[in-house]
Design brief:
By secondary structure, this protein is of the alpha/beta class. It is built from 13 helices and 14 strands.
Protein backbone atom coordinates (compact mmCIF):
# COMPACT_ATOMS: atom_id res chain seq x y z
CA UNK A 1 0.00 0.00 0.00
CA UNK A 2 1.42 3.34 -1.04
CA UNK A 3 1.46 5.96 1.69
CA UNK A 4 2.85 9.43 2.04
CA UNK A 5 4.25 9.85 5.53
CA UNK A 6 3.73 13.01 7.52
CA UNK A 7 7.48 13.36 8.10
CA UNK A 8 9.62 13.38 4.92
CA UNK A 9 13.33 12.75 4.72
CA UNK A 10 15.21 15.94 3.88
CA UNK A 11 18.79 17.04 4.28
CA UNK A 12 19.82 20.42 5.57
CA UNK A 13 21.41 21.40 2.27
CA UNK A 14 18.28 20.65 0.27
CA UNK A 15 15.81 22.66 2.26
CA UNK A 16 16.02 25.85 0.24
CA UNK A 17 16.61 24.53 -3.25
CA UNK A 18 14.08 21.73 -2.86
CA UNK A 19 11.08 24.01 -2.45
CA UNK A 20 10.79 24.69 -6.18
CA UNK A 21 7.52 23.22 -7.44
CA UNK A 22 8.05 20.39 -9.92
CA UNK A 23 4.50 19.12 -10.37
CA UNK A 24 0.88 19.85 -9.45
CA UNK A 25 -1.59 16.97 -9.77
CA UNK A 26 -5.31 17.51 -9.15
CA UNK A 27 -7.71 14.57 -9.04
CA UNK A 28 -11.51 14.67 -9.01
CA UNK A 29 -13.04 12.18 -6.59
CA UNK A 30 -16.58 10.88 -6.05
CA UNK A 31 -17.14 9.27 -2.65
CA UNK A 32 -20.46 7.45 -2.07
CA UNK A 33 -22.47 8.12 1.08
CA UNK A 34 -23.70 5.16 3.11
CA UNK A 35 -27.15 6.75 3.27
CA UNK A 36 -28.72 9.68 1.36
CA UNK A 37 -27.61 13.12 2.54
CA UNK A 38 -30.03 16.08 2.81
CA UNK A 39 -28.27 19.40 3.51
CA UNK A 40 -30.41 21.74 5.61
CA UNK A 41 -29.47 24.81 3.53
CA UNK A 42 -30.81 23.25 0.30
CA UNK A 43 -34.33 21.99 1.16
CA UNK A 44 -35.45 19.00 -0.90
CA UNK A 45 -31.99 18.21 -2.28
CA UNK A 46 -30.83 14.61 -1.80
CA UNK A 47 -27.23 13.59 -2.46
CA UNK A 48 -25.94 10.02 -2.76
CA UNK A 49 -22.25 10.91 -3.03
CA UNK A 50 -19.70 13.57 -2.26
CA UNK A 51 -17.62 15.29 -4.94
CA UNK A 52 -14.12 16.30 -3.94
CA UNK A 53 -10.85 17.47 -5.47
CA UNK A 54 -7.50 16.51 -3.99
CA UNK A 55 -4.32 18.30 -5.04
CA UNK A 56 -0.78 16.97 -4.69
CA UNK A 57 2.19 19.31 -5.08
CA UNK A 58 5.68 17.87 -5.45
CA UNK A 59 8.91 19.84 -5.10
CA UNK A 60 12.16 19.20 -6.97
CA UNK A 61 13.59 17.02 -4.19
CA UNK A 62 10.37 15.08 -3.64
CA UNK A 63 8.71 16.90 -0.74
CA UNK A 64 4.96 16.38 -1.14
CA UNK A 65 2.11 18.56 0.08
CA UNK A 66 -1.63 17.83 -0.04
CA UNK A 67 -4.82 19.84 0.06
CA UNK A 68 -8.41 19.28 -0.90
CA UNK A 69 -11.92 20.71 -1.06
CA UNK A 70 -15.45 19.96 -2.18
CA UNK A 71 -16.45 19.93 -5.84
CA UNK A 72 -14.74 18.76 -9.02
CA UNK A 73 -12.12 21.42 -9.71
CA UNK A 74 -9.29 19.49 -11.37
CA UNK A 75 -9.76 21.16 -14.76
CA UNK A 76 -9.54 24.61 -13.14
CA UNK A 77 -6.34 23.60 -11.33
CA UNK A 78 -4.82 22.18 -14.51
CA UNK A 79 -5.68 25.20 -16.64
CA UNK A 80 -5.55 28.18 -14.30
CA UNK A 81 -3.30 27.24 -11.36
CA UNK A 82 -0.70 24.65 -12.33
CA UNK A 83 0.95 26.72 -15.12
CA UNK A 84 1.58 29.56 -12.66
CA UNK A 85 3.03 27.36 -9.91
CA UNK A 86 5.46 25.20 -11.86
CA UNK A 87 9.05 26.31 -11.36
CA UNK A 88 8.09 28.73 -8.57
CA UNK A 89 9.04 28.34 -4.89
CA UNK A 90 6.40 26.80 -2.64
CA UNK A 91 7.19 29.37 0.04
CA UNK A 92 5.97 32.28 -2.14
CA UNK A 93 2.43 32.05 -0.74
CA UNK A 94 1.71 35.76 -1.19
CA UNK A 95 2.70 35.55 -4.85
CA UNK A 96 0.49 32.49 -5.36
CA UNK A 97 -2.51 34.07 -3.60
CA UNK A 98 -3.23 36.16 -6.68
CA UNK A 99 -3.31 32.99 -8.80
CA UNK A 100 -5.83 31.35 -6.47
CA UNK A 101 -8.08 34.42 -6.51
CA UNK A 102 -8.02 34.62 -10.28
CA UNK A 103 -8.76 30.90 -10.55
CA UNK A 104 -12.12 31.21 -8.83
CA UNK A 105 -10.84 30.98 -5.26
CA UNK A 106 -9.04 27.64 -5.44
CA UNK A 107 -7.72 28.28 -1.96
CA UNK A 108 -7.32 24.66 -0.94
CA UNK A 109 -4.11 24.58 -3.05
CA UNK A 110 -2.64 26.94 -0.43
CA UNK A 111 -2.98 24.10 2.09
CA UNK A 112 -0.62 21.95 0.03
CA UNK A 113 1.94 24.76 -0.09
CA UNK A 114 1.91 25.14 3.68
CA UNK A 115 2.12 21.38 4.07
CA UNK A 116 5.37 21.53 2.08
CA UNK A 117 6.67 24.52 4.03
CA UNK A 118 6.03 22.80 7.37
CA UNK A 119 7.60 19.55 6.21
CA UNK A 120 10.66 21.38 4.95
CA UNK A 121 11.02 23.16 8.30
CA UNK A 122 10.18 19.88 10.09
CA UNK A 123 7.60 21.71 12.21
CA UNK A 124 3.83 21.50 12.62
CA UNK A 125 2.27 24.66 11.26
CA UNK A 126 1.02 26.03 14.57
CA UNK A 127 4.58 26.06 15.90
CA UNK A 128 5.92 27.51 12.67
CA UNK A 129 3.37 30.33 12.92
CA UNK A 130 3.90 30.93 16.63
CA UNK A 131 1.93 28.74 19.04
CA UNK A 132 -0.18 30.21 21.80
CA UNK A 133 -2.05 27.04 22.83
CA UNK A 134 -1.78 23.26 22.45
CA UNK A 135 -5.46 22.33 22.27
CA UNK A 136 -8.85 23.85 21.61
CA UNK A 137 -12.47 23.01 22.45
CA UNK A 138 -14.41 21.27 19.67
CA UNK A 139 -18.11 21.37 18.91
CA UNK A 140 -19.99 18.78 16.88
CA UNK A 141 -21.67 20.43 13.90
CA UNK A 142 -24.78 19.07 12.20
CA UNK A 143 -25.56 19.52 8.52
CA UNK A 144 -29.12 18.21 8.20
CA UNK A 145 -32.27 19.82 9.54
CA UNK A 146 -33.78 16.76 11.18
CA UNK A 147 -36.73 16.44 13.55
CA UNK A 148 -37.04 17.12 17.27
CA UNK A 149 -36.78 13.39 17.98
CA UNK A 150 -33.61 12.78 15.99
CA UNK A 151 -31.99 16.04 17.18
CA UNK A 152 -32.57 14.85 20.74
CA UNK A 153 -31.02 11.46 19.97
CA UNK A 154 -28.07 13.12 18.25
CA UNK A 155 -27.49 15.49 21.17
CA UNK A 156 -27.40 12.51 23.55
CA UNK A 157 -24.91 10.76 21.26
CA UNK A 158 -22.63 13.79 21.10
CA UNK A 159 -22.66 14.11 24.86
CA UNK A 160 -21.96 10.39 25.38
CA UNK A 161 -18.97 10.60 23.01
CA UNK A 162 -17.41 13.45 24.97
CA UNK A 163 -18.48 16.59 23.13
CA UNK A 164 -19.34 19.55 25.36
CA UNK A 165 -21.00 21.57 22.58
CA UNK A 166 -23.06 21.14 19.41
CA UNK A 167 -24.44 23.22 16.56
CA UNK A 168 -27.93 22.81 15.09
CA UNK A 169 -29.40 24.10 11.83
CA UNK A 170 -32.48 26.33 11.71
CA UNK A 171 -34.13 26.20 8.29
CA UNK A 172 -37.82 25.49 8.86
CA UNK A 173 -40.65 27.63 7.54
CA UNK A 174 -41.76 28.74 11.00
CA UNK A 175 -39.99 29.96 14.10
CA UNK A 176 -41.92 27.45 16.20
CA UNK A 177 -40.61 24.52 14.16
CA UNK A 178 -37.04 25.70 14.50
CA UNK A 179 -37.30 26.29 18.24
CA UNK A 180 -38.75 22.79 18.69
CA UNK A 181 -35.46 21.35 17.38
CA UNK A 182 -33.47 23.38 19.90
CA UNK A 183 -35.72 22.58 22.83
CA UNK A 184 -35.53 18.86 22.07
CA UNK A 185 -31.73 18.93 22.02
CA UNK A 186 -31.49 21.01 25.21
CA UNK A 187 -33.85 18.68 27.02
CA UNK A 188 -31.98 15.57 25.88
CA UNK A 189 -28.45 16.74 26.72
CA UNK A 190 -28.50 19.20 29.64
CA UNK A 191 -25.31 21.14 30.17
CA UNK A 192 -24.27 21.16 26.51
CA UNK A 193 -23.27 24.46 24.95
CA UNK A 194 -25.40 25.04 21.84
CA UNK A 195 -24.86 27.16 18.73
CA UNK A 196 -27.42 27.78 15.95
CA UNK A 197 -26.70 28.21 12.23
CA UNK A 198 -29.43 29.77 10.07
CA UNK A 199 -27.48 29.62 6.77
CA UNK A 200 -29.07 32.87 5.58
CA UNK A 201 -25.93 34.50 4.17
CA UNK A 202 -26.42 32.98 0.72
CA UNK A 203 -29.13 30.98 -1.01
CA UNK A 204 -27.99 27.93 -2.94
CA UNK A 205 -30.34 26.28 -5.45
CA UNK A 206 -32.87 24.00 -3.78
CA UNK A 207 -35.73 21.75 -4.78
CA UNK A 208 -38.14 23.27 -2.25
CA UNK A 209 -38.42 26.96 -1.29
CA UNK A 210 -35.78 28.01 1.19
CA UNK A 211 -37.03 30.14 4.11
CA UNK A 212 -35.66 33.69 4.05
CA UNK A 213 -35.24 35.68 7.22
CA UNK A 214 -35.76 39.42 7.45
CA UNK A 215 -34.45 41.57 10.27
CA UNK A 216 -37.60 41.15 12.39
CA UNK A 217 -37.43 37.38 12.26
CA UNK A 218 -33.70 37.36 13.00
CA UNK A 219 -34.21 39.59 16.05
CA UNK A 220 -37.15 37.54 17.33
CA UNK A 221 -35.16 34.31 17.07
CA UNK A 222 -32.07 35.89 18.60
CA UNK A 223 -34.09 36.87 21.68
CA UNK A 224 -35.57 33.39 21.94
CA UNK A 225 -32.06 31.94 21.79
CA UNK A 226 -30.86 34.39 24.46
CA UNK A 227 -33.58 33.15 26.78
CA UNK A 228 -32.41 29.57 26.25
CA UNK A 229 -28.72 30.29 26.87
CA UNK A 230 -27.51 29.65 23.30
CA UNK A 231 -23.94 30.84 22.69
CA UNK A 232 -24.22 32.23 19.15
CA UNK A 233 -26.47 32.67 16.12
CA UNK A 234 -24.70 32.17 12.80
CA UNK A 235 -25.52 33.79 9.45
CA UNK A 236 -28.93 35.21 10.42
CA UNK A 237 -29.10 37.66 7.46
CA UNK A 238 -27.71 38.00 3.92
CA UNK A 239 -23.95 38.45 3.82
CA UNK A 240 -24.09 42.00 2.43
CA UNK A 241 -26.78 43.29 4.81
CA UNK A 242 -24.17 45.24 6.74
CA UNK A 243 -26.72 47.58 8.32
CA UNK A 244 -29.04 44.79 9.46
CA UNK A 245 -26.22 42.69 10.88
CA UNK A 246 -24.76 45.64 12.80
CA UNK A 247 -28.22 46.45 14.23
CA UNK A 248 -28.65 42.85 15.32
CA UNK A 249 -25.27 42.86 17.08
CA UNK A 250 -26.21 46.09 18.87
CA UNK A 251 -29.72 45.01 19.90
CA UNK A 252 -29.02 41.57 21.32
CA UNK A 253 -26.67 40.11 23.92
CA UNK A 254 -26.34 36.90 21.89
CA UNK A 255 -23.12 36.56 19.88
CA UNK A 256 -23.76 37.00 16.15
CA UNK A 257 -21.39 35.01 13.92
CA UNK A 258 -20.63 34.68 10.23
CA UNK A 259 -18.21 35.10 7.38
CA UNK A 260 -17.85 31.70 5.70
CA UNK A 261 -19.78 33.02 2.67
CA UNK A 262 -17.72 36.19 2.32
CA UNK A 263 -14.74 36.40 0.01
CA UNK A 264 -11.43 38.26 -0.02
CA UNK A 265 -9.86 40.56 2.52
CA UNK A 266 -11.86 43.69 1.71
CA UNK A 267 -15.18 42.04 2.64
CA UNK A 268 -13.84 40.99 6.02
CA UNK A 269 -12.47 44.46 6.64
CA UNK A 270 -15.97 45.86 5.96
CA UNK A 271 -17.61 43.29 8.25
CA UNK A 272 -15.20 44.11 11.06
CA UNK A 273 -15.17 47.90 10.59
CA UNK A 274 -18.99 48.09 10.48
CA UNK A 275 -19.46 45.84 13.51
CA UNK A 276 -21.48 43.23 11.61
CA UNK A 277 -20.37 40.20 13.60
CA UNK A 278 -19.10 39.49 17.09
CA UNK A 279 -17.46 36.32 15.73
CA UNK A 280 -15.64 36.24 12.38
CA UNK A 281 -15.76 32.83 10.66
CA UNK A 282 -13.80 32.63 7.39
CA UNK A 283 -13.04 29.27 5.77
CA UNK A 284 -9.56 28.36 4.49
CA UNK A 285 -11.02 26.63 1.40
CA UNK A 286 -13.86 29.06 0.65
CA UNK A 287 -13.17 32.58 1.88
CA UNK A 288 -9.43 32.96 1.44
CA UNK A 289 -6.43 30.67 1.83
CA UNK A 290 -4.86 29.85 5.16
CA UNK A 291 -2.20 32.49 4.39
CA UNK A 292 -4.88 35.16 4.12
CA UNK A 293 -6.90 33.92 7.10
CA UNK A 294 -3.93 34.81 9.27
CA UNK A 295 -4.39 38.42 8.13
CA UNK A 296 -8.14 38.29 8.86
CA UNK A 297 -7.31 36.99 12.34
CA UNK A 298 -5.08 40.03 12.88
CA UNK A 299 -7.83 42.40 11.68
CA UNK A 300 -10.26 40.78 14.12
CA UNK A 301 -7.77 40.96 16.98
CA UNK A 302 -7.09 44.65 16.33
CA UNK A 303 -10.82 45.44 16.52
CA UNK A 304 -11.56 43.17 19.49
CA UNK A 305 -13.63 40.67 17.53
CA UNK A 306 -13.59 36.92 18.07
CA UNK A 307 -11.94 34.85 15.33
CA UNK A 308 -13.39 31.33 15.11
CA UNK A 309 -12.87 29.89 11.62
CA UNK A 310 -15.32 27.72 9.69
CA UNK A 311 -14.53 24.00 9.53
CA UNK A 312 -12.47 23.74 6.31
CA UNK A 313 -14.55 21.18 4.36
CA UNK A 314 -12.41 18.07 5.11
CA UNK A 315 -9.58 16.76 7.25
CA UNK A 316 -7.15 18.88 5.24
CA UNK A 317 -8.99 22.09 6.08
CA UNK A 318 -9.76 20.95 9.62
CA UNK A 319 -6.10 20.28 10.37
CA UNK A 320 -5.11 23.67 8.96
CA UNK A 321 -7.85 25.40 10.95
CA UNK A 322 -6.71 23.78 14.20
CA UNK A 323 -3.12 24.84 13.52
CA UNK A 324 -4.36 28.36 12.83
CA UNK A 325 -6.53 28.52 15.95
CA UNK A 326 -3.63 27.32 18.10
CA UNK A 327 -1.46 30.15 16.77
CA UNK A 328 -4.07 32.92 17.02
CA UNK A 329 -3.77 34.93 20.25
CA UNK A 330 -6.86 37.13 19.82
CA UNK A 331 -10.07 37.19 21.83
CA UNK A 332 -11.53 34.13 20.20
CA UNK A 333 -10.09 30.92 18.83
CA UNK A 334 -12.03 29.27 21.62
CA UNK A 335 -13.86 26.71 19.48
CA UNK A 336 -13.22 24.40 16.54
CA UNK A 337 -16.06 23.16 14.35
CA UNK A 338 -16.05 19.42 13.66
CA UNK A 339 -18.55 18.51 10.95
CA UNK A 340 -19.92 15.23 12.28
CA UNK A 341 -23.43 13.87 11.91
CA UNK A 342 -23.67 10.10 11.59
CA UNK A 343 -24.80 8.30 9.52
CA UNK A 344 -24.37 10.88 6.73
CA UNK A 345 -21.37 13.10 7.48
CA UNK A 346 -19.23 10.55 9.28
CA UNK A 347 -15.57 10.88 10.20
CA UNK A 348 -14.71 8.53 7.32
CA UNK A 349 -16.71 10.16 4.52
CA UNK A 350 -16.28 13.76 5.55
CA UNK A 351 -13.09 14.27 7.55
CA UNK A 352 -11.02 11.39 6.15
CA UNK A 353 -12.40 11.68 2.58
CA UNK A 354 -13.31 8.01 2.30
CA UNK A 355 -10.14 6.91 4.08
CA UNK A 356 -7.70 8.82 1.85
CA UNK A 357 -6.61 10.72 4.95
CA UNK A 358 -5.40 7.96 7.25
CA UNK A 359 -5.08 10.26 10.26
CA UNK A 360 -8.15 10.83 12.43
CA UNK A 361 -8.69 14.07 14.30
CA UNK A 362 -10.76 13.41 17.41
CA UNK A 363 -11.56 14.88 20.79
CA UNK A 364 -9.99 13.95 24.12
CA UNK A 365 -11.94 13.12 27.27
CA UNK A 366 -12.56 16.82 27.93
CA UNK A 367 -13.85 17.57 24.42
CA UNK A 368 -10.65 19.23 23.16
CA UNK A 369 -8.72 18.59 19.93
CA UNK A 370 -5.00 19.04 19.35
CA UNK A 371 -3.17 19.86 16.14
CA UNK A 372 -1.85 16.80 14.29
CA UNK A 373 1.66 16.28 15.57
CA UNK A 374 3.67 15.74 12.40
CA UNK A 375 5.31 18.47 10.31
CA UNK A 376 3.18 20.58 8.00
CA UNK A 377 -0.50 19.68 8.27
CA UNK A 378 0.58 16.50 10.05
CA UNK A 379 -1.65 14.15 8.04
CA UNK A 380 -0.92 10.74 6.53
CA UNK A 381 -2.35 10.29 3.04
CA UNK A 382 -3.05 7.01 1.22
CA UNK A 383 -2.56 7.73 -2.47
CA UNK A 384 -3.68 4.24 -3.51
CA UNK A 385 -7.28 5.27 -2.83
CA UNK A 386 -7.17 8.11 -5.36
CA UNK A 387 -7.82 5.68 -8.21
CA UNK A 388 -10.62 3.95 -6.32
CA UNK A 389 -12.64 7.17 -6.03
CA UNK A 390 -11.42 8.93 -9.18
CA UNK A 391 -14.30 10.48 -11.12
Amino acid sequence: MKRTAAKPTVTAGSRTSGMIIRDVVATNLTIPYDVPYRPAWQPGLVRDSRTFTIVKIVTEDGIVGFGGSDGHQASTIDGSVKPYLLGKPAWATELHARTFRNAGGTWFVDLALWDIIGKTANLPLYKLWGACREKIQAYASTSELGTPADRAALARRYQSEGFRALKLRFHNETIEEDLALLDAALGAAPGMTVMIDANQATFLPSVRPSPRWDYRRALTIARELEARGVLWLEEPLPKFDYEGLARLVAETDLYIAGGESNRELHEFQLLIDRGCYDIIQPDCCLSEGISQLRKIAALAEARYRHFIPHHGLSGFGLAATIHLACSTPGLGAGWIEMMYEPPTRTIDTYQRVGGIIESKIWIDSDGFVRPPGGPGLGLRVNEDLFAEYAA
